[in-house]
Design goal:
The protein is α/β, with parallel strands linked by helices. The protein has two domains: 353 residues, Spore Coat Polysaccharide Biosynthesis Protein SpsA, Chain A (Alpha-Beta Complex), CATH 3.90.550; 96 residues, UDP N-Acetylglucosamine Acyltransferase, domain 1, CATH 2.160.10. The chain has 13 helices and 25 strands. The strands form eight sheets. A seven-stranded mixed β-sheet has the order 6-5-2-10-14-11-17, with helices on both faces. Strand 18 and strand 19 form a beta hairpin. The protein starts with a helix and ends with a strand.
Length: 460
């Protein structure tokens, strides 16, 4: 029998028009939460994972061409960039030459369609907060929409639950804050509920490539498509070697109990295992969130599981208003789409180059992307121009929010092509043509400081 809290949450979702399948998935995780499920994955339950690399894979040109013609592309585009002070789709941020993430993604796909004589549908999974802005920005690309398929489908939404009693929170002064997305693991529920998965199958597509819209390295590459198609795997994720900057993030492992590949997120790691989580020599690979799946296999699995894929629960505790820590604590029930790798028998991972993983989570990442460390090619791929990516660490007090960040680089990013690391402490503003060479560490001053145009900053 459903609890009072679950009944109230169900009623709230029905009233808001949430898809019935999404409500059942939410109810599944609510019951797990109610029974004390934490989704934790202790170190004792897993072992390190080894894998092959794309560089060593043999893919014929014919296999690559056939695979990309049978592939549809989905970009996860539900994020608002709130951590950078944004209140609209993060993909609207300017990257360079007046082009946003959305512009570059659209032009990458249009280029590949011509290069491979492929339909290559591009579809965005938007949230209720990003849909309008995204569709308005894409309106300029009249030929982007593939015949018979939508340009977007919507991520589901669910109620935030009060920590004290798991009842849906009420916040009348800003009702939108009563809701949250269910994490990107919702993609599978949304694909089925929207009818899009069936449409792709009916149109003859065999594979789907999914990636984040803030990762411009996630190009629907024909060689990777060919590798996946010939692997025979129902599901695959591209992985990269973890670096120091990935220490606090999730990683791949193999579950001891059944040998399945799993993706352990930070929120699923007990405190006592945090040291093992950060051990780059033990757990060597993390997810790019670039994944591939076979459409028929996904349909069969979703049908067999009655629409509940059963991804591991992520119990995310926040405040109702993320910008106000004094507001009540709530639980957001989330799942990660990469966790589906443990659901599919025969699922695989493959190591790819770091060029396929260029995520922008902070203004540190954005500065790199806007700098001359990357060249924007005629294929609209961000090509890494320096042998190694420099480490960037900007003072969060002055550079974390995009408005403050832009004010301090009014003439654009400095040259970082010859930089090893660039640390900025305090309030600095940079003129045009500044170059960073080697290891540079700018210290805070008593007042705001300025780097004059044309300055060469070096470790000498």
């Amino acid at each position: 029998m459903a609890s009072a809290g679950l009944n109230r949450a169900r009623d709230k979702m029905v009233e808001a028009g949430v898809d019935a399948a999404a409500i059942e998935v939410f109810a599944h995780y609510y019951r797990l939460l109610e029974h004390g499920e934490t989704g934790m994955m202790p170190e004792s339950s897993i072992e390190p994972l080894e894998m092959g690399s794309l560089a060593e894979a043999e893919v014929s040109p014919d296999d690559a061409a056939a695979a990309i013609r049978a592939t549809a592309v989905i970009k996860l585009n539900g994020g608002l960039g709130t951590s950078m002070g944004m209140d609209r789709a993060k993909s609207l941020l300017c990257v360079r030459s007046g082009l946003s993430f959305l512009d570059i993604i659209a032009r990458q796909v249009l280029y590949l369609r011509q290069a491979h004589d492929a339909t290559l549908p591009l579809i965005f999974m938007n949230s209720f907060r990003t849909s309008d802005d995204t569709m308005a920005a894409l309106a300029r690309y009249e030929n982007l929409k593939a015949d018979g398929l939508p340009l977007e489908f919507l991520q589901n939404k669910e109620p935030k639950l009060l920590v004290k009693d798991l009842s849906p929170v009420l916040w009348p002064k800003e009702p939108d804050l009563e809701w949250c997305p269910p994490g990107h693991g919702d993609i599978y529920t949304a694909l089925v509920g929207s009818g899009l998965l069936a449409k792709l199958a009916d149109a003859g597509y065999r594979h789907v490539f999914v990636s984040n819209s803030d990762n411009l390295g996630a190009v629907p590459d024909a060689r990777v498509a060919g590798w996946f198609a010939t692997s025979g795997a129902p599901f695959a994720i591209e992985a990269v070697r973890r670096t120091v900057s990935d220490k606090k993030g999730g990683h791949f492992a193999r579950r001891r109990s059944d040998g399945r590949i799993v993706l352990r997120e930070t929120a699923q790691t007990p405190k006592r295992d945090q040291e093992a989580l950060a051990d780059l020599s033990r757990h060597r690979y993390c997810s790019t969130n670039n994944l591939w799946f076979d459409i028929a296999a996904m349909q069969e699995t979703m049908a067999a599981r009655r629409g509940v894929l059963g991804l591991p629960l992520i119990r995310n505790v926040k405040t109702v208003d993320p910008s106000d820590p004094s507001t009540p604590e709530v639980i957001q029930i989330e799942t990660a789409m990469g966790a589906a790798i443990e659901v599919f028998e025969g699922a695989v991972t493959i190591e790819v180059g770091r060029d396929r993983f260029v995520p922008v989570k902070t203004t540190n990442d954005l500065l790199l992307l806007r700098s001359d460390v990357y060249d924007l090619g005629k294929d609209f791929v961000m090509d890494q121009a320096s042998a190694e990516l420099p480490y960037v660490d900007l003072d969060g007090h002055y550079f974390k929010l995009i408005g403050e960040f832009d004010k301090r680089f009014p003439e654009g990013a400095p040259s970082l092509r010859n930089a090893a690391s660039f640390r900025v402490g305090g309030d600095w503003t940079f003129g045009a043509g500044v170059k960073v060479v080697g290891d540079v560490d700018l210290k805070p001053g008593k007042t705001a400081q300025r780097v004059a145009p044309g300055t060469v900053l070096s470790d000498e």
